[in-house]
Amino acid sequence: MSVTTIQPGGAKAPLDASTPGLSATGLSEVRDWVELLKPRVMSLVVFTGLVGLLVAPGSIHPILGLTAILCITVGSGAAGAINMWYDRDIDARMRRTARRPIPAGRIDAGAALAFGVILGIASVLLMGLATNWVAAGWLGFTILFYVFVYTMWLKRRTSQNIVIGGAAGAFPPLIGWAAVTGDTTLMPWLMFTIIFLWTPPHFWALSLWTHGDYARAGVPMLPVAHGARETRWQILMYTVMLAPAALAPWLAGFAGPAYAAVAATLSAIYLYHAVRTLREAQDEVGRSLVQDAAARRNFGFSILYLFTLFGALAIDKLVFG
Amino acid sequence: MTPEERIQFERRRRSRNWAILGVLVSLVVMFYLISTVRLFQG
Question: A30 vs B19: CB contact, 8 Å cut-off?
Fold first, then answer.
């Protein structure tokens, strides 16, 4: 599929289901509103934000620290809700997302947008009042980056959408750090770099077996725009670049040898999965002949990789100082 | 709107109002705690 054929519909796109589900019970309605906040994405954001907060020098009152994490959580959810509002047309065309609250007609699109905007503004203001305006500024920037740069600009236009847009998911540790210190020095940017380099291979592994969905929706994910073989190579290249980035906190003196050992081990396993993904049995254009078994394992390990790596960073700081 | 739909609509509106009340009360408590902590921190 050519990238140039993709038309950004976004907010102007028609919405088939106009009547919110009147039969929904109160509980299921709450579940729908929570689903708008993309809770699965949120868990990663909350965890990395918390690690940023824990490894920062200095201390923060627990109530203010909890408020900062709440703000990062709500800000992330706000960006997710606005993303679902804008992408409701393509969500309706993808099997993976067709049952989301807006395309399924359970939540009105305008209400979802208002929900996201209000939560976004509230999270930034609360962050500023509870911690400092540097952290609040980064939180606001992250929300705007995800909405305008990733969702509205890049996602439907370029196969590099996840590379540049993925930066939005890399900011939370930096926000957590800034909530404690009021500034952003080298270490939070190293954490940013780790997530920034981890994001493309993580999503490209997923897109290797969901590319049909993306093609139907006209989203130029790498396998759609450049094929599965190129995607496998790109996964390997980013995984190679990620390894030294994962070791960088130790090389820069911010983490000890225990962290370095964990980072080296995880990176070696991740590289093994990337090579397996590249060498998986495939046809002449790189499509898997074994139901993307290696890519699925790669994707599963990528989640474990990031949680363990950041967990090791936090433990290294808390235990070894 | 049929009577059944009206009952459902009112039930949804009532539960939504309770949710908004809960959020507002939580915000009041949170602002109180944040103000107290910041005041004591100087």
Answer: yes
Each domain of chain A, given as residue ranges in start order, spans: 28-184, 185-321
Domain extent at residue B1? 1-42
The residue of chain B with its CA nearest to that of A130 is B34
Q: Note the Cα A303 to chain centre separation in Å.
A: 11
Chain B (2-41) residues lying within 8 Å, Cβ to Cβ, of chain A: 5, 8-9, 11-12, 15-16, 19, 30-31, 33-34, 37-38, 41
Q: How many domains does chain B have?
A: 1
The answer to whether the CB atoms of A64 and B16 lie below 8 A apart is: no
Give CB contacts under 8 A, 24+ apart, made by A26-31: A26/B11, A26/B12, A26/B15, A29/A106, A29/B12, A29/B15, A29/B16, A30/B19
**Residue A67 contacts B where some CB pair is shorter than 8 Å:** yes
The pTM of this model reads 0.87
Residues of chain B contacting residue A24, judged by C-beta atoms under 8 Å apart: 12
Architecture per CATH, A28-184? Orthogonal Bundle (1.10)
A22, A25, A33: best mutation site toward chain B, by most B Cβ within 10 Å? A22
Percent above pLDDT 70 for chain B: 98
Whether B12 sits inside 8 A of A23 (CB atoms) is no
pLDDT tens readout for residues A16-70: 444 444 444 667 788 899 999 999 888 899 999 999 999 999 899 999 999 999 9
For A122, the token pair is 């509230």
Task: Give the count of beta carbons closer than 10 Å to the beta carbon of residue A263.
Answer: 27
Tens of pLDDT, residue by residue over A110-158, are 999 999 999 999 999 999 999 999 999 999 999 999 999 999 999 999 9
Q: What is the DSSP string of A1-18?
A: --GGG----GGGS--S--
**Interchain pair B37, A24: CB under 8 A:** no
Complex ipTM above 0.90? no
Higher confidence at residue A305 or residue A9? A305
